[in-house]
Amino acid sequence: MDRNVETHEYDVVVIGAGGAGLRAAIEARLQGKRVAIISKSLFGKAHTVMAEGGCAASMGNVNPNDNWMVHYRDTMRGGKFLNNWRMAELHAKEAPDRVWELETYGALFDRTKDGKISQRNFGGHTYPRLAHVGDRTGLELIRTLQQKIVSLQQDDHKVTGDYQSHLRVYHECTITELLKTDGRIAGCFGYFRNDGRFVRFDAPAIVLATGGVGKSYQVTSNSWEYTGDGHALALRAGATLINMEFLQFHPTGMVWPPSVKGILVTESVRGDGGVLRNSEGKRFMFDYIPDVFKEQYATTEEEGDRWYTDPDNNRRPPELLPRDEVARAINSEVKAGRGSPHGGVFLDIASRLKPEEILKRLPSMHHQFKELADVDITKEPMEVGPTCHYVMGGIEVDPDTGMSSVPGLFAAGECSGGMHGSNRLGGNSLSDLLVFGRRTGLYAAQFSEGARPAVAREDVDAAVERALLPFTTAAEQGENPFVVQLELQKCMHELVGIIRKEDEMEMALKKLEDIATRTRTVVVEGHREFNPGWHLALDLRNMLLVSLCVAKAALERQESRGGHTRDDFPVMDSDWRHILLVCSALGEDNVELTRKEQIPMRPELFDLFELDELKKYYTGEELGGHRA
Amino acid sequence: MSSTTDMAAGRAQIAARTLRTDRWWLPPLLNVAGLGAWVVYATVRAFMQNWYFVPEYNYLTPFYSPCVSNGCVEQAAHFGRFLPDVWWLPYAAISLPFLLLFRLTCYYYRKAYYRAFWGSPPACAVAEPHGKYTGETRFPLILQNLHRYFFYIAALISLLNTYDAVKAFIKDDGSFGLGLGNIILVANVVLLWLYTASCHSCRSIIGGRLNHFSKHPVRYKAWVGVSRLNAKHMQLAWATLASLAITDAYVMCVSAGWFSDLRIVG
Amino acid sequence: MSHWHHFRVWRGDQGGGKLEDYPVEVNEGEVVLDIIHRLQQTEANDLACRWNCKAGKCGSCSVEINGKPRLACMTRMSTFADDEVVTVTPLRTFPVIRDLVTDVEFNYVKAREVPAFAPPEGVAPGEYRMQQVDVERSQEFRKCIECYLCQNTCHAVRDHEENKEAFSGPRYLMRIAELDMHPLDAADRKDMAQDDHGLGYCNITKCCTEVCPEHIKITDNALIPMKERVVDRKYDPIVWLGNKLFRR
């Protein structure tokens, strides 16, 4: 087989062309650097397009009471105070500027009457806060950033005569290895999906923006790309992951037909008045308001309904509780036998809004159900159930710069960890992408001005060998990678899913050990040109490594918090709040878990909360420093 | 031939001109039949120079409006007679060419005849039978861009048709009359106005060319209305072809005495 | 509820290829993309097909199904009769890479040639004020998922490779219309639409609109209004005379 490796040299290489990656690349280019963007799929197809609801930023366009402090409090509350508070602070403070900036790139958000960016309500946000475009905000974001990249390329073209002289997108290219020299990032190695040729990018700074890990689960809203590549690349390069036990199961994914199981039904359906009912027709969410949220949510249907028109004098309906609460409630209803025919519950907007209104506010939901499930949501309720949606955990980074423990390796967006704590609020992911995408781009650009370590020849050779392993005779008894993937997904879904038990997770770890051996020896047929079997064979080891982190961390954390629910430890435990579980790799298919203390919140941020609220989350001695 | 399977360009080598399995050839066929039949009928009638007017009820067929040839009967000539009466010149020779051009350059008819008569393309994803294609970039098709001027003229002619339809309520003895012919004439005029107003050029002129609707609320409202009609431009295009033919045929029949007008008043 | 269906899939590359027959199991509620995946997981591990979101939002799985350009993820198997042969072929307008995957670089090249949004001078970020009615037209065009089905179907390039140079295709003419209708865009795009991007090649035969999975009215709302705006500029005798008399 052809072992040639094409080589490119850049200042900053961004792996991942979703929102975070593109924003990072834009910033690095604006800093004057030569930048490469590497995308596993075509440019502009990133998973960011799936984000529907909006982008949270406390611009205060709809409710002037909103400001960064309210947003900060909401974010910390949503994450059950396990968040990296510095990231949450930066996020809340910088999000409005990042959104406004998009307008200068050409974004067209929906407008308020006075011509400002309109903002909508969403679960966990005190005020209407999500900038949006109908229910296709993610598409708007990705297209806007894509077009800004093009605009920067046009500027370069005017100077150099070449659109791609300083900013180039390498799409349908998968990175399989990060290359280090003397403990610092020196470059990365991968292959082009279309013809299988190998490629190497030499760069002193690399930004990982590869998104999430959902493809390790059977029911997920994530696409094939979400195989935890960034997480695994970072681990193998010696960086650490945190909070991997926290996975967000979005409460409302489609459950029927089977081929679209898991595909997202946006939270805006509930934000705009949609309610959840069980097979008995009951709005069951009123039975599931946890104590910590008792004061903020309506206790009667009448009050909840009044909130849509008069949010200042009424409390919001419990359908808008944070996602983890709603997902668990649906899970319990289904388990209690009150589910819908295909194992979900009913999400009803048809009886709540006029058909024209539904078409105007939720056009792509209408389209999605009509075309995929042959259901008209203006006439019938939808059937929905939890789907694996987002990983809160990710690469441990410095909150200000986004750099991991490996010098020169940065991470932003879903593949970085800490910002969202144990649970992410809807709308906070798009703003996260922008805020930290920009920050990592900026600091990666600065970092790239330092030393440029040379890539070691042996490292490249080793990477070539590993990439070709599925074709070689060493794997003669190997299996079809699709079969191994299905088993991995099944294992994670059934044993480390939405509700977790010690014995099940121990079983999962055993199974993963077996899957690890099989992953090493999967075998593929044919050639290197656009061969999906080969691609999967290489992605599989990333999925495995990440799954090991999730399972180990989930087994270790003996409490329930946000996106981590233990059947055997059903309550939140303040003694666990300040503990972070940190994963590091032991070779290609094993990981090690250590505990780490969370750094206490800065006093002035701490004082933004009322003592009564903090008491629900903090231990007695931690509260000593509060202003009260 | 076309290059759908252009090998040099690296395209997939699929020999079939199309792999469509539905009856894609049916719509162009129906268009050829429909448009062809209409053109034949209209040509015959335009040159017939007969049976275009019913004097007692003042019914004038739109095919002869305005009747400005020396050959026109005096009552039908509302705007004077000045064209020479020769066999090759239709009596309404000052309006018919513009009506023809208005429809010929209409965005809907263009689609219909490019597809049906020129096969460019015959249907979506069906290879066209031409080796070269330059669209509307050069003469003569670049003249399609003159559509809006024909629209202006067509609007004026619609005024004439309206005048004819109103005048037909007054019988030759000066009294008010109402018959089936009046209803047909009015229906035809209403459809003509709807078709004319739903024109893409009209939509642009009335408001589409603005970038700030919010600063022109009246034009915005008008644009919304025209846009709604515009969505039905195809249906209106066919409806007016039918109504023109029906109106003309009705006037012809009554004028020739093949049957008499169904009278309601007078 | 499953039954067997006769699939024909084009397999090959630039060197040549052919339609291969596969009998395949189909379950209730499945779409064509599910069947392609089933083939990958069983008989044809190396069958190349692009896909991402599987929900009609990313526009990756564009192919031709029974000759019609479609998204494989949005084509339900229930729309075919049980005994109907389902033929899946790659997009015919772009160079094939392998099997159902084509090289869509043409579109990225054209995208780069459309001058980007020109921000209005002296308006700071956060100070942009636009009314909903003024952004709605452009918002319709921004629904575009860039599946390139319109680019693939447009006969101006589908049947005439040589026009690819001069003609940017419906998607990018729509992009120009989007920017031209943007209430705050500072650039003028009428001449450019005609001269640099080949708006005149469009003969408004509406196949782009017919195949658009987002149901964007490309022809009626973008291309024709853009043609009319060009007429305002280039074919209006009064404007023309004014330009002649008062040049500069």
TrEMBL record, chain A:
<feature type="compositionally biased region" description="Basic and acidic residues">
    <location>
        <begin position="305"/>
        <end position="320"/>
    </location>
</feature>
<feature type="binding site">
    <location>
        <begin position="39"/>
        <end position="54"/>
    </location>
    <ligand>
        <name>FAD</name>
    </ligand>
</feature>
<feature type="binding site">
    <location>
        <position position="266"/>
    </location>
    <ligand>
        <name>substrate</name>
    </ligand>
</feature>
<feature type="binding site">
    <location>
        <position position="229"/>
    </location>
    <ligand>
        <name>FAD</name>
    </ligand>
</feature>
<feature type="domain" description="Fumarate reductase/succinate dehydrogenase flavoprotein-like C-terminal">
    <location>
        <begin position="486"/>
        <end position="596"/>
    </location>
</feature>
<dbReference type="InterPro" id="IPR030664">
    <property type="entry name" value="SdhA/FrdA/AprA"/>
</dbReference>
<feature type="binding site">
    <location>
        <position position="414"/>
    </location>
    <ligand>
        <name>FAD</name>
    </ligand>
</feature>
<feature type="binding site">
    <location>
        <position position="250"/>
    </location>
    <ligand>
        <name>substrate</name>
    </ligand>
</feature>
<keyword id="KW-0274">FAD</keyword>
<feature type="binding site">
    <location>
        <begin position="16"/>
        <end position="21"/>
    </location>
    <ligand>
        <name>FAD</name>
    </ligand>
</feature>
<feature type="binding site">
    <location>
        <position position="389"/>
    </location>
    <ligand>
        <name>substrate</name>
    </ligand>
</feature>
<dbReference type="GO" id="GO:0033765">
    <property type="term" value="F:steroid dehydrogenase activity, acting on the CH-CH group of donors"/>
</dbReference>
<protein>
    <submittedName>
        <fullName>Succinate dehydrogenase / fumarate reductase flavoprotein subunit</fullName>
    </submittedName>
</protein>
<dbReference type="InterPro" id="IPR015939">
    <property type="entry name" value="Fum_Rdtase/Succ_DH_flav-like_C"/>
</dbReference>
<dbReference type="Pfam" id="PF02910">
    <property type="entry name" value="Succ_DH_flav_C"/>
</dbReference>
TrEMBL record, chain B:
<feature type="transmembrane region" description="Helical">
    <location>
        <begin position="24"/>
        <end position="44"/>
    </location>
</feature>
<feature type="transmembrane region" description="Helical">
    <location>
        <begin position="88"/>
        <end position="109"/>
    </location>
</feature>
<feature type="transmembrane region" description="Helical">
    <location>
        <begin position="176"/>
        <end position="195"/>
    </location>
</feature>
<keyword id="KW-0472">Membrane</keyword>
<feature type="transmembrane region" description="Helical">
    <location>
        <begin position="149"/>
        <end position="170"/>
    </location>
</feature>
<feature type="transmembrane region" description="Helical">
    <location>
        <begin position="236"/>
        <end position="259"/>
    </location>
</feature>
<keyword id="KW-1133">Transmembrane helix</keyword>
<protein>
    <submittedName>
        <fullName>Uncharacterized protein</fullName>
    </submittedName>
</protein>
<keyword id="KW-0812">Transmembrane</keyword>
Automatic annotation (TrEMBL), chain C:
<keyword id="KW-0408">Iron</keyword>
<dbReference type="InterPro" id="IPR006058">
    <property type="entry name" value="2Fe2S_fd_BS"/>
</dbReference>
<dbReference type="InterPro" id="IPR025192">
    <property type="entry name" value="Succ_DH/fum_Rdtase_N"/>
</dbReference>
<dbReference type="InterPro" id="IPR017896">
    <property type="entry name" value="4Fe4S_Fe-S-bd"/>
</dbReference>
<dbReference type="InterPro" id="IPR009051">
    <property type="entry name" value="Helical_ferredxn"/>
</dbReference>
<dbReference type="GO" id="GO:0022904">
    <property type="term" value="P:respiratory electron transport chain"/>
</dbReference>
<dbReference type="InterPro" id="IPR050573">
    <property type="entry name" value="SDH/FRD_Iron-Sulfur"/>
</dbReference>
<comment type="similarity">
    <text>Belongs to the succinate dehydrogenase/fumarate reductase iron-sulfur protein family.</text>
</comment>
<keyword id="KW-0560">Oxidoreductase</keyword>
<dbReference type="GO" id="GO:0006099">
    <property type="term" value="P:tricarboxylic acid cycle"/>
</dbReference>
<keyword id="KW-0001">2Fe-2S</keyword>
<keyword id="KW-0411">Iron-sulfur</keyword>
<dbReference type="GO" id="GO:0051539">
    <property type="term" value="F:4 iron, 4 sulfur cluster binding"/>
</dbReference>
<keyword id="KW-0004">4Fe-4S</keyword>
<dbReference type="Pfam" id="PF13183">
    <property type="entry name" value="Fer4_8"/>
</dbReference>
